[in-house]
Design a protein that fits this description.
Elements (H helix, E strand, L loop, with lengths): L3 H17 L5 H7 L6 H13 L3 E2 L8 E2 L1 H9 L9 H12 L4 H16 L2 E5 L8 E10 L2 E8 L4 E7 L6 H15 L7 H5 L8 H19 L6 E4 L16 H7 L2 H8 L8 E4 L11 E8 L7 E8 L4 H21 L1
Antiparallel strand pairs: 1-2, 3-7, 3-10, 4-5, 5-6, 8-9, 9-10
Helix pairs in contact: 1-3, 2-3, 5-12, 6-12
């Protein structure tokens, strides 16, 4: 375990390096920070931090920079995240309150996160498997064609076409709509299949094939892998940090194009707590020079998806974590009120 004084030296190195983008020397530390010890003691502390792998010297005669291990300790020992100012909080609320539907909420959230953090923002759509049914609508498009509209408690809307073998009367359609909603509204998607299993048997023989076709389409919608949707924004922000990527920014950009990679980076949606993955903690090699800050969002205190940012390891962790957490809370409030 490092002494509190050496932790202070490490904090100072991280803060200075993030702010100046330059390796930090002992003289600069003693001039900028009230460490309460002599420059010689600071040099000794820096030597210990380097021996233990928390800081490194990028080249001879240069100052020191934090390593992944150093950033990890810095984040783990943070006393708290940086709170947003009142104008920032008001701006977040006003911007997100203007959203008209779920797609707009996600789009605005991505833009907002990218602007607040000046990083790449990633927002996962609410997962169907963690949602409940708000309403099922059935709309006649033609004598033998229907549209099934599934609306979730998070505001997500899924539309599917249903081709029927024979025309379906308006009265039968209204009956099916009413019976279906009476069984599934307010229920978890995972609970729906057994609730509707015997529904065809309650209809006349001539309608059962159509009822079964509607149910098959509904159940397919509930289990589709396409539920794991993401929106990403602010990729251009990475160009400001070109020197933070050892060789080239290309592997980072390629990784950001892979949805599976991003989903793994964000982590399980059910994990609502703040997560920070630094450098080589990211399993994908192309992102070893980046850090990912993510948190769950949802209504009623339960996470239905994740959002976060991707940026260089040299990032303002307290500020980034504060912004990500604040935006997640506002999005959760919008979902709860929708």
């Amino acid at each position: 375990m490092l002494s509190e004084r050496r932790l202070e030296v490490l904090r100072a190195i991280v803060q200075d390096y993030v702010g100046t983008e330059e390796p930090v020397g002992s003289k600069a530390l003693t001039e900028r920070h009230r460490l309460g010890v002599s420059p010689a003691t600071v040099r000794n502390d820096m030597a210990v931090l380097e021996d233990e792998g928390y800081i490194a010297q990028p080249h001879t005669s240069a100052g020191r920079i934090p390593t992944d291990k150093g950033y990890r300790l810095f984040v783990d020992r943070l006393a708290g995240v940086k709170p947003l100012s009142t104008p920032e909080r008001r701006a977040i609320q006003n911007f997100l309150d203007g959203a008209v539907d779920l797609d707009d909420v996600v789009s605005r959230t991505v833009r907002l996160l990218a602007q607040l953090t000046r990083q790449v923002a990633v927002v996962q759509y609410p997962s169907l498997t963690r949602s409940t049914v708000r309403h099922v609508e059935l709309l006649p498009l033609a004598p033998a064609r229907l549209m099934l509209v599934l609306i979730t408690d998070t505001g997500r809307v899924e539309q599917r076409l249903v081709d029927c073998q024979t025309p379906f009367a308006d009265t039968s359609l209204a009956d099916l709509r009413a019976r279906l909603n009476s069984r599934v509204v307010g229920r978890r998607f995972t609970d729906v299949p057994p609730l509707v299993k015997d529904l065809p048997e309650s209809f006349d023989n001539e309608d059962r094939v159509t009822v079964k076709a509607v149910l098959d389409t509904l159940l397919e919608t509930l289990v589709e892998e396409a539920e794991e949707r993401l929106m990403i924004g602010g990729t251009a922000n990475l160009t400001r940090f070109g020197h933070d990527f050892p060789l080239t920014i290309r592997p980072v950009l390629e990784a950001l194009e892979e949805q599976v990679v991003l989903l793994k980076l964000l982590g399980e949606a059910s994990e609502s707590g703040m997560a920070v993955k630094i450098g080589h903690e990211n399993a994908y090699e192309g992102l070893n020079s980046t850090s990912v800050v993510s948190v769950g969002y949802g209504s009623g205190g339960e996470a239905v998806a994740k959002l976060g940012v991707v940026g260089p390891t040299r990032m303002d962790y307290p500020g980034t974590m504060g912004a990500v957490r604040a935006v997640a809370r506002y999005v959760g409030q919008i979902l709860a009120e929708s």
